[in-house]
Each structure stands twice: as structure tokens, then as C-alpha cells.
Design goal:
The complex is a heterodimer. By secondary structure, chain A is an all-alpha fold. Chain A is built from twelve helices and no strands. Chain A is about 80% helix and about 0% strand. In chain A, α2 runs antiparallel to α3, α5 runs antiparallel to α10 and α10 packs antiparallel against α12. The longest helix of chain A has about 35 residues. The mean pLDDT of chain A is about 85. Chain B is built from ten helices and nine strands. Helices cover about 35% and strands about 20% of the residues of chain B. Chain B is of the alpha/beta class. The N terminus of chain B is likely disordered. The termini of chain B are far apart. The chains are: A mainly alpha, B alpha/beta. Chains A and B meet through α9 and α10 of A and β5 and α5 of B.
């Protein structure tokens, strides 16, 4: 066993256990809110142990047994450390929960408020963000193809689109409420507007990405516009389309949440964040933020997985 | 659909007319209906600093079964001439007939296969699906497609690489795959634009020998653009020497004296060297013309 392996085996459990001990010790009466230098020294040691362990884990050579596990362990260890130190510092220093709740109370709130969070998730993610995302991305692609086909449209529409893409969401959200009502359709409309432009721009670039020889080849086969689009230009544009889809995955969630600040029925993640913040129950706000982070990363990850499967041929993805 | 039927009825190339009986290569180009006939062909295009004459007054007739190479300095219009035959460029003057019809009609009839300077294989398709691309576009049924792809991969000695992706193959193998792609729908005319220009000498020799065998086997008419004198003389029945811009034909060197069977060693023979010398002199004359 190398020195590095020995260090990993020693330091990783030390950091994990030390972190848990530190976070739970912070809650003890006499420590909470009035931690002394010894406590902060312990926190520093935990941080040091975790940093060293993470460094060694990240340096595990390719081909070594357990490398996959080590690669997975680095972000997990880091995330865990952030939570534990956050807990220890907030509780140990006695920061008021209104300013910054400790993760434990956010987690507790998350667990007890599951039905509310579930309803908010359905309203904001499934009813507002998802349909808007699909609509915006598809129409962005459609308009990009039309603009490619008819150059007059390209010259006339694209400059207008550039201006429209600069519209601030806080401006269009109230207008959409006027047009489509308080419930999710107005939020989906905001998301559709927001996701339309990245797709339009990326798809336009993607459709222009084919080389002259590739296009000439299709011409020698007497292939028409549609055939060339399907067999050559859309596959070539796929990496661009996925870039837009990933950008849009994040934009859609932001759009749906922010749009709810401008009038909404009494459900939804944005609605909950705005009223719970007003009521100073920051643990619920943080629980919603955690939910948004989870949903956003899961959605982004899903798109990234589909991208890997669909563009495995692309130099940025393929192995060997 | 009728296109698919017509393809299906064609004989496989190996069973084509016995090549030894074909007189085309030796005979004067006018004996059979020409595959390519150009008269007074010229092409001028507008550039930022005035019109550029890429081709000027080109007269050329190519008979069926010929292997004609075009050689000349860079920018002499040899590629432009080939692209005109393929209807990828439109001449601005003169007449051009391909297989008895206009270049555009010939393209729409899918009369020729084109091999480009780069393999231009689509990276999201396997080698087999790249080779089968024209067949897919022409609506050839799946079973026949599979059979043809296998046959032509075999012909360019790429059997066993059907399921690989282009980037997993060497440059020479990729170019062979692109040749199989140009051949698999059995066009009577093959247009090749410096197909081996980017490959190293050894691979190039090998592919030249293979191409010659393939030409004898399939009895196709081949138009071949190159800037290598030995390559042109080795492969061709006739070498067309072109001048720098505006591209015009300076000399046409008949290479049929080398015969149809040409081992690589033929390049050491006095006859081969004499032909090469004549091409070289033509190229030199072309440069003097320009100066």
C-alpha cells in the first residue's frame, strides 16, 4: 500500500467522523453560540483533514483499482464538509436563524414540509417550467430552420430577435400574467420566451456548421433541402442543440420561479419563497432553494446523459 | 422507387463487360458516345478585385472506359473543371455534355460518383452506414443496401471495419471508405479530386495500385485530378496538362503505351520516364506562357 493510499484510508474517515462530531458538539449547551478557540481549532483540523484527503483522492492515477469510487468521493466529501462546517459555524457562533439557518433545521423543515414542497414542485417544475421549456426550445429550433431556409426571414427576423432577447424577465412576466392569467400558463409563457432565444442562436450556428465538402457530397446525390437537413445538417447541429438545451434547463427553472413573484395562485416555489421570506421563516426558503437545486441538477444531468448517448461521435464526448 | 428498381436490375460490376475486349482506352475518343464532351468551356467568376478567369476555352472529349488525369499547378482550374462536370460549378461559357445530357441532368440522374480531397465521412455514422448513405438517399431497400455495402467494403479491403466509426480509421482507410461510398451505387463515371493528396507516399502507392485494379475490374470511366506527375502517368490512359490561370489545356499525353496491367515497378521503365518527362515539359511550358 502506498503512502497515498494509507493517507486516504486514514484521513477520509477522520474528516467524516470529526465533522459529524464537530457539528453535533456545536449543539451542546455551553458551546452553542459561545464556542471558544478550542472549537474553532477543531473545525480547522477537520477542514485540513478533508482537504488533504480530497487532494489525495483526486490524484489517484487512472487505471488504479477504485479510481471510479475515488472520483465520486471527492465532490461528496467536499459537499459533506461544506454542510458540516456550515452547521458548526452557524450554531457555534450563534448566528440568528433569520440570517442563516443551519443545514440541520433546513433538512428538518424539508422533511416535515414534503407535501407542500411536492405541490410546489408540481406547480413550478412540471406545469410551468417543463411545458415552457419544450415549447420555447422547439419553436427556437423551428424558427432557426425557417430562417435558414428563407434568407429574407433571416435578414428581417434575426435582428428583431436579438432585440427581443434583451427583454428583461421582470418586464415580460407581468404582461404574460395579463395575457394568460395567474395560473401556470403565464409562467410557461415566460419560460418559453426565455428559452426561445438561446435555442434560436445555437441552432442557427449549428445549421451553419457543415463544411462545403459535406454539402457538396449531398448535392452530388441530388439530395434536396429536406434530405440534406435530415441526413447532414441536423446531426451536425446536435452538439449545438444540446448546448442550448442545457442552458435552457437552468433558465427554465429560474424563469418559472421568478415569474411567480408577479402574481400566482397560492402554490409554487417562487410564491413560497416570496411569502416565507416575508414571514422570516428562512428555513422554508432554504428548503425551497434546496429543492430547486435538486430539480435543476437532476434535469441538467438528464439532458447531459441524453447528449452523451446522442452525440457519442463528437470529439468532445467520444473516448478513443 | 423506380430508381431503386433500376439499380436492382443492374449487373454487379465484377460481371460487367470483359475489360480486355474494351477498345475504348486505345481507340480515338470519338469512336463511342463520349462520357464527357466539353467545347470552348470557360468559367469566370467575380472576386473582390475583379473577375477571375478560372477556365478558358477548354475542349475535351472523354470516351467510355478511359482513365483521364488532370495535372497542373495549384489554382489552374483542374478542380474547377471536374466540379463543372459534376455540376457543382456552373460554366459561364461553352458547352458541356455529360453522358449525352447536361451536367445538371447527369447529376440529377446520379450518373457519377465523386471522391473529394477529404474523405468527408459523417462522424455520426459507422463506416458501413457512411458507405450506404447514397443508397439510403436513393431509396434502395435495406437488404440490397446491406449486400452492396458489404461487397464494396470488400472491394476496397475494408471488410471487418463496417462497424467502426470514421475517426477510428487511418486517413488512407477513410479515403478508401469514401471511394466505396462513391462506387456502391455503381455509377459509370467516377470523378476524383486529388483523393490521395493528403496521404503519405507509401499509402498513396498502395492506393494507386488498388485504384488501377479497381478500374480494370469495373470498367468505369474515371476523371482524376492530381498534382503528382508519377501518379498521373501511372494511373491514366491520358494525362491532360493544364496551364496556370486562366486554366487551359496545354497538352494531352497519351499513356496507353504502358498497357493496362501496370505493376508499381513500371515507374522505373524508360517509357514511363519519357511520358513523365513530356508531362513535366508541358507544365514548364505552361509556366513560361504565364510569365
Amino acid at each position: 500500500m502506498t503512502h497515498r493510499a494509507a493517507r486516504i484510508v486514514l484521513l477520509t474517515p477522520a474528516a467524516l467522523l470529526g465533522g459529524v462530531a464537530l457539528a453535533s458538539a456545536a449543539h451542546r449547551p455551553g458551546l452553542a453560540g459561545e464556542a471558544g478557540p478550542g472549537f474553532w481549532l477543531a473545525a480547522l483540523l477537520v477542514w485540513l483533514a478533508a482537504t488533504l484527503a480530497a487532494r489525495d483522492l483526486a490524484a489517484v492515477a487512472p487505471g488504479t483499482a477504485g479510481r471510479g469510487l475515488a472520483r465520486l468521493a471527492v465532490p461528496l466529501l467536499f459537499g459533506f464538509l461544506v454542510l458540516v462546517l456550515w452547521e458548526a459555524v452557524i450554531v457555534g457562533a450563534g448566528v440568528p436563524a433569520v440570517l442563516m439557518p443551519p443545514p440541520s433545521s433546513v433538512a428538518l423543515r424539508f422533511a416535515t414540509a414534503l407535501p407542500v414542497l411536492g405541490a410546489d414542485f408540481v406547480q413550478t417544475c412540471l406545469k410551468s417550467a417543463l411545458p415552457g421549456y419544450v415549447l420555447g426550445s422547439l419553436s427556437g429550433l423551428g424558427v432557426a430552420i425557417l430562417a435558414d431556409r428563407f434568407s429574407a426571414l433571416k435578414r428581417g427576423l434575426l435582428p428583431v430577435a436579438d432585440v427581443a432577447s434583451a427583454l428583461p424577465i421582470v418586464g415580460i412576466a407581468p404582461i404574460m400574467v395579463m395575457w394568460f392569467g395567474f395560473d401556470w400558463p403565464s409562467k410557461a409563457a415566460v419560460v418559453a420566451v426565455m428559452t426561445f432565444f438561446p435555442m434560436l442562436v445555437q441552432a442557427g450556428a449549428g445549421l451553419a456548421a457543415t463544411g462545403r465538402i459535406e454539402r457538396d457530397l449531398m448535392r452530388t446525390y441530388a439530395a434536396g433541402y429536406g434530405r440534406t437537413l435530415l441526413s447532414l445538417r441536423l446531426p451536425m447541429a446536435l452538439p449545438f442543440l444540446f448546448t442550448a438545451l442545457k442552458v435552457n434547463a437552468t433558465l427554465a427553472l429560474i424563469g418559472a420561479i421568478v415569474a411567480e413573484f408577479f402574481g400566482t395562485p397560492i402554490v409554487g416555489m417562487g410564491f413560497r419563497i416570496s411569502i416565507e421570506a416575508a414571514r422570516l421563516s428562512l428555513d422554508m426558503v432554504w428548503a425551497e432553494i434546496a429543492l430547486a437545486a435538486l430539480a435543476g441538477s437532476a434535469f441538467y444531468g438528464l439532458i447531459a446523459l441524453i447528449e452523451r448517448a446522442a452525440t457519442g461521435w463528437h470529439p468532445s464526448v467520444r473516448a478513443g | 422507387m423506380s430508381r431503386a428498381g433500376a439499380l436492382a436490375l443492374k449487373e454487379p460490376p465484377e460481371n460487367g463487360p470483359a475489360e480486355t475486349e474494351r477498345p475504348a482506352a486505345r481507340a480515338a475518343p470519338s469512336s463511342a458516345a463520349p462520357v464527357v464532351a466539353a467545347r470552348g468551356l470557360s468559367l469566370t467568376y467575380a472576386a473582390a478585385d475583379g473577375p477571375v478567369r478560372a477556365l478558358a476555352d477548354v475542349d475535351l472529349t472523354v470516351a467510355p472506359g478511359e482513365f483521364v488525369s488532370f495535372i497542373g499547378p495549384s489554382g489552374c482550374g483542374k478542380t474547377t473543371l471536374l466540379r463543372c462536370v459534376a455540376d457543382l460549378e456552373q460554366p459561364t461559357g461553352g458547352e458541356l455534355v455529360v453522358n449525352g445530357v447536361s451536367a445538371e441532368a447527369a447529376r440529377l440522374r446520379r450518373d457519377y460518383g465523386f471522391v473529394f480531397q477529404a474523405p468527408a465521412l459523417y462522424p455520426w455514422r459507422t463506416i458501413a452506414r457512411n458507405v450506404g448513405l447514397p443508397l439510403e438517399i436513393f431509396g434502395v431497400p435495406r437488404a440490397e443496401r446491406r449486400e452492396r455495402v458489404a461487397r464494396y467494403l470488400d472491394l476496397v479491403q475494408l471488410d471487418g471495419f463496417a462497424k467502426k466509426y470514421p475517426w477510428q480509421l487511418s486517413g488512407g482507410m477513410q479515403q478508401r471508405a469514401s471511394i466505396a461510398r462513391a462506387l456502391c451505387f455503381d455509377p459509370k463515371l467516377l470523378l476524383m479530386d486529388e483523393p490521395f493528396g493528403a496521404l503519405d507516399e507509401i499509402v498513396r502507392d498502395h492506393l494507386n495500385a488498388q485504384l488501377l485494379t479497381l478500374w480494370r475490374k469495373t470498367a468505369k470511366t474515371i476523371l482524376f485530378v492530381t498534382h503528382s506527375i508519377p501518379e498521373a502517368v501511372y494511373l491514366s490512359t491520358r494525362v491532360v496538362v493544364m496551364s496556370p490561370r486562366p486554366g487551359r489545356i496545354i497538352d494531352i499525353v497519351d499513356c496507353t503505351a504502358l498497357g493496362r496491367e501496370r505493376p508499381l515497378e513500371i515507374r522505373e521503365t524508360p517509357e514511363f520516364l519519357r511520358l513523365g518527362q513530356r508531362v513535366r515539359e508541358g507544365l514548364r511550358a505552361g509556366h513560361a506562357y504565364d510569365a
